What we know:
Number of strands: 5
CATH superfamily of the largest domain: Helix-hairpin-Helix base-excision DNA repair enzymes (C-terminal)
Number of helices: 13
Mean pLDDT: 82
Shape: globular
Radius of gyration: 21 Å
Order of helices and strands: EEEEEHHHHHHHHHHHHH
Number of domains: 2
Largest sheet: 3 strands, antiparallel
Helix content: 40-55%
CATH architecture of the largest domain: Orthogonal Bundle
CATH class of the largest domain: Mainly Alpha
CATH topology of the largest domain: Endonuclease Iii, domain 2
Strand content: 5-15%
Amino acid sequence: xxxxxxxxxxxxxxxxxxxxxxxxxxxxxxxxxxxxxxxxxxxxxxxxxxxxxxxxxxxxxxxxxxxxxxxxxxxxxxxxxxxxxxxxxxxxxxxxxxxxxxxxxxxxxxxxxxxxxxxxxxxxxxxxxxxxxxxxxxxxxxxxxxxxxxxxxxxxxxxxxxxxxxxxxxxxxxxxxxxxxxxxxxxxxxxxxxxxxxxxxxxxxxxxxxxxxxxxxxxxxxxxxxxxxxxxxxxxxxxxxxxxxxxxxxxxxxxxxxxxxxxxxxxxxxxxxxxxxxxxxxxxxxxx
Length: 288
């Protein structure tokens, strides 16, 4: 495994390399972003019936994000994956800890835990109380400590100390749901057939109009149908990074968003006014 991401979907003539640089993302060789015209569904008689879902702009969105996230902080689990050379066990544990927890907290807790125990068998020897102290203050740290220890024991007893490489087997581990399992398969085992959906991917996919779903589980299945397979392993990195910085849950920064030409902003009722106010102040100063 290497720390590079395969961006062959960007097209011929593009180097398409994502490289980690001090915890930051660098993107090289992107071609000029193309804006696709809106598609129209035609009836049997050739008449226009309805506008096709904005999912038709998936490639444009992914190209725009590939350029826009250059220089933004990587999500914590991505950092751990790259720094530990995609070690499946550390990716698994870090992802378990990351649920409903800020990235900085996840990174700190994972670092403390891995300093004490770096393998399933050594971590399984820790008591739940020891794990609790090491991972605090991640959200639900008591529940997560029990899951971490139980998962380590199962890996040692059932899988001979190795993190399983299939979705079905990963879902057998205590505390591991589809989000965690898919992310481990993508980051640690290089899968290109999985989509990892967390709260950011769920929210932004619906805002973009790619899907109309109520739960992350439903979003995952809908995205398999709405997007081309070449985008699947990149969707989480791109949308999570963008969701943490621009397309926020509350008051998204729509005025400065590179996806504005493609995004119908489904469900967005209130936007951040910071950029609008700043632009107004600049205009006022110029007019004086």
